[in-house]
Amino acid sequence: EIVLTQSPDFQSVTPKEKVTITCRASQSIGSSLHWYQQKPDQSPKLLIKYASQSFSGVPSRFSGSGSGTDFTLTINSLEAEDAATYYCHQSSSLPQTFGQGTKVEIK
Amino acid sequence: EVQLVESGGGLVQPGRSLRLSCTASGFTFGDYAMSWFRQAPGKGLEWVGFIRSKAYGGTTEYAASVKGRFTISRDDSKSIAYLQMNSLKTEDTAVYYCTPGVVTVDPWGQGTLVTVSS
Residue B93 above 90 pLDDT? Predict the structure, then answer.
């Protein structure tokens, strides 16, 4: 099973600040890494697919990068509405797995 | 627009069974694999399993935590995917989601809550 480890677990950030969340895979997964945003009491939403492809309708301040075992989700100029938990997800091999989540709080 | 409606959740005692349904619209259901995911209260996301389309044999794959207890099936004529859950355990308590495909999870429905408790 591929283990995805996100860091940090929690981040408190002021508006307009840049946020960087990393996801490290226990073995190479190529680019089969996706990012989701989950706001309180809502279902998750897809932000980034295949490591760096922005999903339709997602604000341009969200971007992804990486390949192999190290991946990054970047939120440029954080907005108040970005308060949420962010998850990475690998579909390279079964069982599919998720990172433990990174909670982003707005100061 | 793709729409997914999960239903069938509720309160059930440990050891009992429950069947969830995922009613889909907005895409050609029979052309897609259908996946199930879950999220325990206050916890992270977990892959449950999927069923391939008939074109790929309609075969299934499961997470180790549910293998042998859960069964995924599909009725392409009704555009419904099912998750039959047997021998339920308290640790199966979660919101269950379905989605088309086996790569990215999109869209996510509203989910259906399953509570396993005596």
Answer: yes
